[in-house]
Design a protein that fits this description.
Aminopeptidase; 11 strands; 305 residues; 9-stranded mixed sheet; globular; alpha/beta
Length: 305
């Protein structure tokens, strides 16, 4: 009787083991029972696409970021030298549309005249730093014609700001304040310095590329202004202003003192110890191509070996 009981218990144990093995094998092979799960670990949760962490560098074009409305902010490169000179237009979008049109004209000029660029120099032009603002005024964030622009300045003012209604030239880290001033008007400078994707894009590009000098086109006052952020003007900034002014015949105005500007991009560049000047076109409609072409050529010659 004892032996029969032992045999019975052995059979029960063997039967349970076979059932467990069969069940485990079925769960691993039958997709209706064992569904594949996507990994959910910090290593893949925190990785951002490359375009969110650094510029996408190609031979002739860099997408340095996107606007609030997800339009590309594009840098165009001419020449292959190690000394980069950066030109920027359209920070005030459709309100200063002629600065973007001028930038496109300079791009066409460099494309047609590559020998203008010294061997040691690379010219980078960002024609539209505020693509949403330009699109609001002219219906596109890329190249356009002056006939696409509304006939009155009043119709272009809203295009000065990005899609968050922030004045990008009050959103940089040089004396940023929670209230911005434009002439005698109050404008939104953003919730903090570099709160906007457009200003973040140019900051990140400059942090990576470290340009030798920067020229930013604005309108309208008809003059060259040096950058400064709570200190003396860099010697090279003064030289850059002098060279551009003499070649273009714009008056060299020194520092901008007409009214207080906080969060200005060009002044932030001074804080970063990068020589930078503001070139203000004479009005809101003309590109003054010949004057600025002469200034560009003089700057390139200055930085040649």
């Amino acid at each position: 009787m004892k032996n029969i009981l032992i045999i019975f218990l052995v059979l029960i144990v063997l039967g349970f083991g076979a059932s467990f093995l069969f069940s485990d094998s079925t769960n691993k092979t039958d997709p209706t029972i064992y569904e594949k799960e996507e990994p959910n670990t910090p290593s893949n949760q925190n990785i951002k696409p490359i375009e969110e962490t650094q510029p996408i560098i190609n031979e002739k074009t860099t997408i340095i970021g996107k606007s609030v409305e997800k339009r590309d902010i594009i840098a165009n490169h001419y020449g292959t030298g190690e000394t980069e000179i950066l030109f920027i237009g359209g920070i005030h979008g459709g309100y200063e549309w002629n600065t973007s049109l001028l930038a496109y004209e300079m791009m066409d000029y460099l494309e047609a005249n590559p020998n203008t660029i010294p061997n040691n120099v690379k010219v980078t032009i960002i024609p539209v730093l505020n693509p949403d603002g330009l699109n609001k005024t002219v219906g596109t964030s890329s190249n356009f014609k002056s006939t696409d622009v509304p006939p009155t300045i009043a119709e272009t003012i809203s295009g000065r700001f990005n899609a968050n209604k922030v004045d990008l030239n009050r959103n940089f880290d040089c004396n940023w304040k929670s209230t911005g001033i434009w002439q005698n008007k109050t404008v939104d400078p953003g919730s903090k310095a570099f709160s906007e994707p457009e200003s973040q894009a140019i900051r990140n590009y400059i942090d990576v590329q470290k340009p030798q000098a920067v020229v930013v086109w604005y309108s309208s006052a008809g003059g060259i202004y040096t950058s400064n952020c709570n200190g003396t003007v860099l010697t090279e900034t003064k030289t850059l202003a002098k060279i551009f002014a003499e070649a273009s015949k714009y008056p060299n105005q020194g520092e901008f003192t007409s009214y207080e500007i906080n969060g200005d991009m060009v002044n932030w560049l001074a804080k970063e110890n990068i020589p930078a000047i503001s070139v203000l076109l004479t009005d809101h409609t003309n590109t003054e191509k010949n004057k600025n072409q002469a200034g560009l050529e003089a700057v390139l010659k200055h930085y040649s070996n």
